[in-house]
Design a protein that fits this description.
Radius of gyration: 27 Å
Number of strands: 28
Helix content: under 10%
Strand content: 35-45%
Largest sheet: 14 strands, parallel
Distance between the termini: 112 Å
Shape: globular
Order of helices and strands: EEEHEEEEEEEEEEEEEEEEEEEEEEEEEH
């Protein structure tokens, strides 16, 4: 027997995860955890929205073992059926200075008054309207809507630089794809495509499988197409550069003619 309000549980005999079915149930909207406070109870508007918009079944992938499970979208937490690790499903709204680590399968929203400086941030998606000074890892999409200077690492499936954003990355970012509508400076390593819209501007080196620059968009930097993994550590070592310079100098000295061009025969000859 399970609690009447239970939405999902684990079998006590085999450990398998399953969803508790109910004939008539009112689904409440999932509360948003505001950093610096406690989770507030659902308001009347949220309850009405919960009645009109029933919760759906979504897929969640474990960060540790990669196991995929089906859960109710209104759930705030669950347990991985494969490795038994706790999985946070809440959405976080950062509206003040915050430096603790976040590890959630929900969405993170940094408001214009928020300052997120955590050393480790793992989430499903994120919206940045304020300051981001830590490292961010998102499985899906990250959208920058305001100017920002990111000193930490960034990796995401998709990155969008908004029209009003002016983002500066101090480290190379690793993305699946990126769309630039505003201004951006930094190095990009993309698995698929880099898109610069007509209002976009990019300054920095790019490694991607393809790039699309619309008319009006600007790009300044080095471009490498077809190579997925590239970084500053992969530059030519100094010893190799010296050997190449030495061989080039020997080849120039071996030439019997000055400047490598034979002299014209004189008229007397």
């Amino acid at each position: 027997m399970e609690y009447a309000a239970a939405k999902n549980t684990l079998c006590r005999q085999c450990g398998r995860h399953f969803i508790v079915a109910a004939a008539e149930r009112v689904e409440l909207a999932k509360p948003v955890l505001e950093v610096g406070g406690v989770v507030a109870a659902p308001s009347l508007l949220q309850r009405v929205q919960g009645i009109l918009h029933r919760a759906r079944i979504t897929s969640v992938t474990c960060f540790d073992c990669g196991a995929v499970q089906q859960i109710n979208s209104a759930a705030s937490s669950t347990i991985c059926p494969s490795c038994s690790v706790h999985m946070d499903l809440r959405d976080y709204k950062v509206n003040t200075a915050f430096s603790r680590a976040i590890r959630t399968h929900g969405r993170i929203h940094v408001t214009s008054a928020g300052d997120l400086s955590s050393s480790s941030i793992v989430c499903r998606s994120a919206i940045i309207d304020g300051k981001l000074r830590g490292s961010l890892q998102c499985n899906e999409k990250v959208e920058f809507r305001a100017p920002a200077k990111v000193q930490g690492k960034l990796s995401a499936g998709e990155v969008i630089i908004g029209k009003k954003a002016d983002v500066q990355f101090f480290r190379q970012i690793h993305v699946g794809s990126i769309e630039i509508r505003g201004r951006m400076s930094g190095e990009i390593a993309a698995e698929t495509m880099v898109t610069i819209r007509r209002t976009g501007s990019l300054e920095g080196n790019v490694v991607a499988r393809s790039i699309n620059v619309e008319r009006g968009g600007t790009f300044s930097g080095q471009l490498m197409i077809g190579q997925k993994n590239w970084g500053q550590a992969e530059l030519i070592p100094k010893s190799e550069e010296r050997s190449k310079a030495k061989s080039a100098g020997e080849s120039r000295r071996e030439s019997p003619e000055p400047y490598g061009v034979p002299a014209r025969p004189s008229a007397a000859a």
